[in-house]
Amino acid sequence: MSYTLYIGNKNYSSWSMRPWIVMQHFAIPFEEKWIHFDNFDKNSKFKQTVLTFNPFGCVPFLVVDDFVITDSLAICEYLAEQHSALALWPTDIKQRAQARSLTAHMHTGYQKIRQYLPFNIEAQLPEIGKIILRDHLPVKKEIEFLDNLLSRYLKRSQGNYLFGNFTIADAFYAPLCLRLKNYQIQVSDDLLKYIQTLCSTHGITQWIDAALKEHHFVAIDEPYRFSR
Description:
alpha+beta, 4 strands
């Protein structure tokens, strides 16, 4: 069985980051194919390239021999089934259900954080973070909810991650946590320690290092900067 993971720019593509770091962390061999963001119009080079493989026109997607999986959570669920010995989800049945619930909420939620604090590994934007928290109460409320939620799991965890060892749940929350770090959002001590742990975790460190070396400026993904 061979895996080819198609991703977007590492600096901007939080969705691509999730399955990529899962595969890296658990040493699942794969070939990486990078599709450069230009814009997301239907006639853009990015869209035309992706639509060759993926009818939804987005990344990431995983090519497995002769078929394609087109969603980050679906990719990780498939990998968890194919590599059950690696414990991509917690081994305890109750924790596994909780991890899936937590991940599903992340997969569909936090829309205000996504809108106002876009993913950008290269940029350090503390002043923007202050302005957003001052002017957009729904963002502040989502961050408070996120902090309380993750802190509750971290307090009862038997390890450094949400469910002890690193799992898919941590991979999915990593991009949100990097947003808080780069916009220098003040968080609880529990969440701050967790963010520091994530930033020293194999797979995540590799992704960050690669993102910092890209040196591409994609205007459509840069609402707060006009140049690098």
